[in-house]
Amino acid sequence: MKKYDVFVIGSGMAGMTVANKCAAGGLKVGITDELAYGGTCALRGCDPKKVIIGATEVRDFAHRLKGIGIDTVPQVNWKDIMAFKQSFVNDMPPKIEKGYKQNGIDTYHTAVKFISENTLQLGKDHITANNFVIATGAKPRELTFEGGHFALSSTEFLNMKDLPGSMLFIGGGYIAFEFAHIAARCGSKVTIVHRGKHPLKNFEQDIVKHLIDATRDLGIELILETEVLKIEKKNDDYLVSGKSGETMSEFKVEAVFNSAGRPPAIFDLDLVKANIAYSEKGIEVNSFLQNTTNKKIYAAGDSADTNGLPLTPIAVMEGHIVASNIIKGNKKEVNYPPTPSVVFTLPVLTGVGLTEEQARNKEVQYKVNYQSAENWFNAKRLNVKQYAFKTIIDKNTNSLLGAHIIGPNAEEIINIFAIAIKTGIKVAELKKMIYTYPTMASDIPHMV
Ligand SMILES: Cc1cc2nc3c(=O)[nH]c(=O)nc-3n(C[C@H](O)[C@H](O)[C@H](O)COP(=O)(O)OP(=O)(O)OC[C@H]3O[C@@H](n4cnc5c(N)ncnc54)[C@H](O)[C@@H]3O)c2cc1C
Ligand SMILES: NC(=O)c1ccc[n+]([C@@H]2O[C@H](COP(=O)([O-])OP(=O)(O)OC[C@H]3O[C@@H](n4cnc5c(N)ncnc54)[C@H](O)[C@@H]3O)[C@@H](O)[C@H]2O)c1
Question: What CATH number belongs to 347-447?
Fold first, then answer.
C-alpha cells in the first residue's frame, strides 16, 4: 500500500494550492481528480465564462453607442468565441500535471472513497496517508422532480456547439443571471424562473433591482416566486412547469439549464467509514480547517462547511491555511477578510461587506448613501442606464461597513472598497485620495 504524508482529493484551486505548497514544504504528496486537472474555475467556471463575456462586452458597448459614434452593432460569433475559450481550457490540465510532476507530486486520475479512517480506495489500489485533504468542490444540485434529468449543467452550457434558440434557467442565482445575459446577447430567447421573491438574495436588494430592470430590458423573461416542478420532453423542445401559489405556468424552450445551486461534492466519498463529520454544507471543520471528528482530515474550498463564500479566492486562501497547518501543525486559524463578490452580468453587480439589512440586524449606528448615478458623467459618456451604488457607513467610526455597486467596471472598483473596509480607513481620508480622472474610480469620493 502506498503511503503519503498528504493525499489531496480534488485538483481545483483549493487542492492544487495545498498539494503544491505541501510538496514545496518537503512532504510526500499525492493528488487525484476524477476529471481533468484544473477544477471548476479554470475548466468550467470563472475563466471560460469570462472569456466568452469578453465578446458580449463588445456587443453591449457597441449597442450603447449605436447612433452616437457607432454605426453597426457586431454579432457574437458563437463558434469562434467558444474555440477561443477552449484554447484556455485545453492548456490547463497538462500544464498543471507538469507542475505537479516537477514538484515531485504523485498524480492519479480516479474517483476515491474512504475505506477506513486513514485509507482510501483508489481504483484497485489502497492508499494511506498521515493527512488527507478533501477539496472536491461542489456539483450542480440534483433536481429530483419529474424530468429533472433533462436540465443541462453550466458545464454543458460552456460546451454548447450551437446556441439554442430559446432556453430556460431554473433558479435565480449567479449562474442563471450570468449565463442568461451571455445567451441573450448572443441571440437566444431566455427565461429565468426563480422560486423566491428576490433573486440573488445575498446581494443588496436595492442594487439587485437595477439588475432586474437591465435584465428585462435585455429581453430576458424573469419569472419570480415560481418553483419549477416538472420538465417534459416534447419532440425537440422541453415543456417546463412551474408553480406560483396555486397557479401553474408552462414554458416551452429548446434547452433547460440547472442553475438551482451547487451543494458540496462529498456525498460519494463514504465519509462515515472514515468517521468524518459533515453537513449538507460540507465537511465540518474547526478554525484550523481540520475535520471535527477525524483529525487526519482537512478540507478547503467549496467542499468545506466554512463561513467563507464558495468563490475561487476563498478556495485558494483556505488551501494555503490547510497546507500551513499540515506542514507546521495547527497554527493558522481561518479569518475571512471582507470578501467582494461579483455577478458578471452587463451591467456588473457587485458588493462587499454588510448589506443594509445586515447592518440593521447588528448593534451598530450607521448611515446609508443610496443613489442612482445614471446622470453622472461616467454613465452618460458610456450611455449606460444602470449605474447605482449603496454605501453603508459606521456613524461612530466614520468608516465603511459595506459597499454595493451596479455599473461599468464595478468588478474592479469594488476591490478599493474591500481594502477600505479591511483597513478601516475613515471616509474623510477616502474622499481626500487623488484618483485618476476621468475614470470610474474618480466617482468613489462621491459615493461615500
Ligand atoms: C459556472 C461557474 C462560474 C463561476 N464563476 C466564478 C467567478 O467568476 N468567480 C469566483 O470567484 N468563483 C466562481 N465560481 C465558483 C468557483 O469556481 C469555485 O468556488 C471554485 O472553483 C472552488 O474551488 P475548489 O477547489 O473548492 O473546487 P473545484 O474547483 O470544484 O475542484 C474540485 C475538484 O474535485 C474533483 N472531485 C470531486 N469529487 C471527487 C472525487 N470523489 N474523487 C476525485 N476527485 C473529485 C472535481 O472533479 C474537481 O476537479 C463559479 C462556479 C461555477 C460553477
Ligand atoms: N461570479 C461568481 O462568483 C459566480 C458565478 C457562478 C457561480 N458561482 C458559484 O456557484 C454557486 C452556485 O451558483 P447557482 O447560481 O447555481 O446557485 P445559487 O445558490 O446562487 O442560486 C440558486 C437559486 O435557485 C433557486 N432554486 C432552486 N431550485 C429551484 C426550483 N426548482 N425552481 C426555482 N428556483 C429554484 C434557489 O432558491 C436559489 O436561490 C454560487 O453559490 C457561487 O458561489 C459564482
Answer: 3.30.390.30
